[in-house]
Structures are given as C-alpha cells and as structure tokens.
Write a structure and sequence with these properties.
Layout lengths: L2 H32 L1 H10 E8 L6 E2 L5 E14 H4 L2 H14 L9 H18 L2 H16 L7 H8 L8 E9 H13 L6 E11 L6 H4 L11 H5 L1 H4 L4 E8 L8 E6 L6 E4 L3 H17 L4 E7 L6 E7 L10 H4 L3 H4 L9 H10 L8 E3 L4 E4 L2 E4 L6 E3 H7 L2 H11 L1 H10 L24 H8 L8 H12 L3 E3 L4 E5 L5 E4 L4 E4 L3 H12 L19 E10 L6 E14 L6 E8 L10 H20 L22
Parallel strand pairs: 2-8
Antiparallel strand pairs: 1-6, 2-3, 3-4, 3-5, 6-7, 8-16, 9-10, 9-21, 11-14, 12-13, 15-18, 16-17, 19-20, 20-21
Main location: membrane
Organism: Oceaniferula marina
Keywords: Carboxypeptidase, Hydrolase, Membrane, Protease
C-alpha cells in the first residue's frame, strides 16, 4: 500500500468513528432529554413496595420429638386513612357496590366486571361531589368489615379514629390468624377495597404445654428474640433470617394486581431437640407441687439426670409461670434449680468421705470417734444432733454425723479437701445451656472454723443442679459430666445438623471409690439410716439427706426455725439409671420434723417410683405381697 492509499484509509476510519460517535450522542440526547419526561411519568406511575417475608423460628421438641414450642403465623390489619379518603379508590369501591346489585353482575366474568367497575367509577366522579364519594365509601367499608372483624359498626368506627386527622395510620386488629387475614383480604378484593387496608404478617411463639419446664424453655419477645432459657441460649440457631418480595404496582390502575419483581426467600431457623422427656417432666412437676403443698413450702426444685451421659431428663422449679401469657414472669421467672444457692447441709458430707476413701486414708469400715454430741478442736466447735461415739465411715454417712465428716476432712487435709470440692464442680458454673446460671459460693478462707463448717455443708453455697452433677459422678464410676440439655440441632426436613455428645469434665474419683460410696450411701436409706422414707419397693436406693438453717441475708446469721431440706438419691443403687435431687425451701409444716429425711426423702420416693415405671426399670429386689383384709374366696368341691 502506497502512502496516498494509506492516508485515504485513515481518513475513512476517522470519518466512520465521528459519524458513529455522533449517532451515539444523538441517541443519548434523545433518551436523556426528549424521552426524559416519558420515563419520569412512567416512574411516577409505578409504586414499589417491599414486603418482608418472615422466617419461621425453629421448633423445640423433647427427646421423643414431642413438640414443645413452635411459631404460628399471625397478621396485623391496619388502615391507611389517606387512601381511605382518596376519591380514586373510593369511587371504585362504590361502583363495585352498585354493580354488585345489578342483574348482569353474575353474567359477567372477572374481566368484564373489572371493565364495568372502572367505567362506572369514572362516571361517579363526575356525578357526585368528592365529599359524598368519600363519606359513602367510609360507610361501605364499615358495613363490609365490622362483622368479619367481630365488631359492631360503632366499635369499628371508633377504632378507625376518623376524627383524628393527624393520625394517618391506624391499627384495626392485631393477632389475626392466617385464615382470618386471608378471609379479610379476599373480602377486600371482592368489594374493591384493596388500598385502604394493609396487612403485616408476623410470627407468634406458641408453647404447647405452657406451664411445663417454663424456666428451661424460656420465651421470646415481640420481635421473636429469645429472652430466657433455651430460647435465649439457642437463639442464633432458631432465629433464621427474614426474606422479602418487592411488588410493583401501577398507582393509577387501582384494580391491578401487584406484580412481584424481586424475591429473596426467607431462611427458616433450625429446630432444637432437648434431652428432656416431657413425660418425666410432668412427673417431677406434679410431685414437686404436691410435696410443697403437703409440707407448706413456697419454693423448691427437683433435678433428674442420667448419670452416665449427663443428660438432664427433667428439671422442675417452683414457683413457675405460663409461657404463653407470661403472667408473673418477673415474680416467678427465677429458676430455683440453676440459680438458687443454698447451704446444702449433710448432702455435702460425701466430699470428705469420698476424698478420704479415694486417697486410701480410710476404708468403709474404718472407725471414727464421733464424740457425744459435741466435738471441740481448739477454737473449733462442731455440734452434732445425736451422741454417737464410734462410727464406721459408712455409718458416718448413714447417721449423718457432723464430727465424723469433719474428722474425715481433717484427715484429708485442707488443700486436698478443697481440691475435691472443686473437682466435684462446686464453686463453678456447670455450663448447662441456660442463661443466668449461678456458680455457687466456695471460699477457702484458711479459717479453721470455716473449714469445719464446710465439711458438713455450711459456709458453702450450691445449686440443686451442682448437687445432681456431683452425685452423678459417684453414680457413674467417678466422672463429672457436663449436664446436657440440648440433644441435637435439626433442619426442617429432620436432618441432624449437630449432635451433642456426652462430655466428661474430669475424673473425680477412682472407680473403686465410687463403688464404695454407692454401697455406703445405700446404708443411708436402710432402716437405721436418716433416709428410710426414701425407700422404693422393689429397688435398692442410695442417697443422702441434707438439712440446713436458712441464712438471714438482712441481719446476718441464721433465721430461727427456718430450714432448707434436701435429698440426693440414685436408683437402683447397684447401677443407677438416674440421679434425683429434691430441694424444698423453708417448709412450714408442723406435722413432721423439718429434716431432709422427713420431707425431701418421701418426695423422692414418689418421684422415683413413677420414674422407674416410665423408664421400664426392672425391680432389683423381691416385692413382698401386700397383706389383704378381704376374706378368701370359698371353693366348692
């Protein structure tokens, strides 16, 4: 190619580029200037409304998949008074009312009805003053919706607050069911009243057994956020994430159906399966309330655990509250089982005995001189409820001797003793999946008197759950287990997302020591022990009673004649299937002496008998036939 041809080619390309650029510029000018008004008008005609699609909060079920808590769809109906008084929607509504009574109405299909309503509405605006259209429309709205809403016409009129001009948005009715909201929406469509009312969908938490396990389950607020118990602790799994849909509607085509243009589906929450058996929970709650009534007490707790896995099978606290109504939640929302701290008394004596046995310092049959009702050791004074003299280690537990427990603690030594207290989990939270758990109070002050008192369950504070965990360590061969309350997390299709397995915290005792303790604690329930009323026919029971004076937090010291009584038991004693701790606060009965053996032990017996039956435990001891006073049936030969 020569130079002349090359120049011609470059000139052609430049001209082509300029022409193309000019055409593009012209198109841009046309779109931005000439058609700008058309696009603006189109934008003004289109209304975009973003509607939230609520996520379902996950369900809560028990270990047998029995439903405990779920969400139910609800809706709120609100009135937009600005649209109510707009002649456009109002004329369509009146046209619908007029034509609905015509002979041709039933002959028209949906398209014909729509066309005729629009046509008649247009003429009405020419025939009637705007004020009359609006006023008749309001009366028609009231007539249409009053009865379906369960209101009189006057009640609905008052609810609409027509005299309050500044208030443009009014809630007509809350807590509508899904079916009720659908029927109201459909009624509005049939009468061409689709703009004045707005429906906000929501979710309401519903508890199937609202008065059972209230403290464990917890509740949600109006925004579906967990505020107590499992609802709070597992909120991040159950909450889910809301979605949305953006609807485009032609502002000037009032009968047109909104068209969804963008949809982001909600992500529903996961379901929580608990270790609770609601059948066992019912047993605990029934027997706890019956026991508190019988012994005139206002507060108490029962904890039932599988000692081998740490699973909380049931856990009852009283007083309680209704999860659906939440009446008295402030007054009764305190969970005795995990938040109440009390001086355990003699149930704490197992620490000294188990520690001394575990270190090989004594055997179950080693004799301890327990003095005769009072033991003095320098400045330390240890009283006893009975003058016993010599007792074996087993008998120290069976008779619940204070000096005996103190001497075992002395033999073990202060450091070793407090090491065992810590190893059994006292003074620390158990880390159960519940909010607000107490750690209890354990103080190694170095004071000899404090040390003596801790050895028999004073100057130390515990929770019922901590005691249940400690006794579970004895029952399962010496391992402290973390209490399990959540069994698994599941998707809506039943797929298990996460399983919670038994979690040993530490080994507390040698297996041999745990077996020795089980045998020793079985003697407590013997006829000569302090817990003979904890006996269950057909089974050998092991356990320990506890009685302690109530602290006077206001004035210091103890309250005169007021006690916290308890029993920590396990059954069958040979290989416990469950551990059950009963704590009764401040019984006022005068029919029996206020001891753990006379109040908490018989409550345990009633619970254990029913629990064994539900769990299908086979009797481990022969059941003696009951005597009958009925005459024997005569036989004829």
């Amino acid at each position: 190619m020569n130079l002349k041809s090359f120049r011609r080619r470059c000139l052609f390309l430049c001209l082509t580029f300029v022409v193309g650029l000019s055409a593009l510029s012209a198109r841009l000018i046309y779109l931005q200037v000439i058609k700008a008004d058309d696009y603006a008008k189109m934008s003004d005609r289109v209304s975009i409304r973003k509607e939230i699609l609520r996520a379902n909060r996950g369900c809560i079920v028990d270990t047998n998949n029995q439903l405990i808590a779920r969400n139910i769809p609800r809706a709120l109906m609100a009135l937009d008074k600005k649209l109510l008084m707009d002649t456009g929607p109002a004329s369509l509504s009146l046209a619908n009312l007029e034509l609905r009574g015509s002979d041709e109405w039933n002959e028209w299909d949906a398209r014909a009805r729509d066309r005729n309503i629009r046509s008649r509405a247009s003429r009405l605006k020419d025939e009637m003053p705007a004020e009359d259209i609006v006023q008749q429309h309001i009366e028609h709205v009231i007539s249409t919706f009053a009865r379906p809403l369960g209101m009189t016409r006057e009640e609905l009129r008052l609810c609409m607050q027509l005299d309050q001009e500044k208030k443009k948005y009014v809630v007509i009715k809350k807590d509508l069911s899904e079916d009720e909201a659908y029927k109201l929406k459909q009624l509005g469509r049939e009468h061409s009243i689709v703009h004045a009312f707005h429906y906000e969908e929501s979710q309401k938490r519903w508890y199937v057994m609202p008065e059972m396990a209230s403290h464990i389950i917890g509740y949600t607020d109006h925004q579906s956020e967990g505020k107590a118990g499992i609802e709070s602790r597992m909120n991040r799994y159950m909450a889910g994430h809301d979605g949305y849909v953006k609807n485009h509607r032609d502002k000037f085509d009032l009968l047109a159906v909104a068209k969804p243009q963008e949809i982001s589906p909600p992500r529903h929450g996961l379901n929580i399966q608990l270790t609770l058996d609601m059948g066992l929970q019912a047993i605990l709650e029934e027997e706890l309330e019956a026991g508190l009534r019988e012994f005139y007490a206002e507060k108490g707790s029962i904890v039932l655990m599988n000692p081998h896995t740490g699973e909380v099978l049931a856990m009852a606290s009283y007083p309680s509250y209704n999860l659906n109504t939440r009446e008295d939640v402030v007054k009764n929302g305190f969970d005795f089982a995990t938040q109440a701290i009390y001086e355990p008394g003699s149930t704490f004596k197992v620490i000294a005995a188990a520690g001394a046995l575990d270190k090989g310092l004594v055997s179950p049959q080693t004799e301890i001189f327990c003095h005769y009702g009072l033991y003095r050791n320098g400045s330390v004074r240890v009283p006893d409820h009975h003058p016993y003299g010599n007792l074996t280690v087993e008998q120290v537990l069976a008779k619940s001797s204070n000096p005996g427990a103190y001497k075992l603690a002395l033999l073990l030594g202060r450091k070793n003793y407090y090491d065992y207290v810590s190893a059994f989990g006292f003074g620390k939270k158990t880390n159960i999946a519940m909010a607000g758990e107490s750690a209890g109070v354990v103080r190694n002050t170095g004071n000899p008197t404090d040390f003596s008192r801790v050895s028999y369950g004073y100057a130390v504070s515990v929770t019922p759950l901590q005691v249940a965990c400690a006794y579970s360590a004895i029952a399962n061969g010496g391992r402290l287990m973390r209490p399990l309350l959540v069994k698994s997390i599941m998707a809506n299709d039943g797929t298990v997302v996460m399983n919670y397995k038994p979690e040993p915290v530490r080994r507390v005792l040698k297996e041999r020591t745990a077996m020795q303790m089980l045998k020793a604690l079985a003697t407590v329930v013997d006829i000569k022990g302090t817990a003979k009323r904890a006996k269950v026919e057909g089974y050998q029971v092991a356990g320990k009673t506890g009685t302690s004076k109530k602290l006077d937090f206001k004035n210091g010291g103890y309250l005169d004649g007021r006690y916290t009584v308890s029993f920590a038991g396990m059954m069958p004693a040979e290989k416990p299937a469950f551990v059950c701790v009963v704590v009764v606060d401040d019984p006022q009965t005068t029919e029996v002496k206020r001891y753990g053996g006379t109040i908490a032990a018989p409550i345990f017996a009633k619970v254990a008998k029913r629990v064994a039956n539900r769990m299908g435990l086979k009797p481990t001891e022969p059941i003696e036939p009951k005597e009958t006073t009925e005459p024997l049936a005569q036989t004829h030969h």
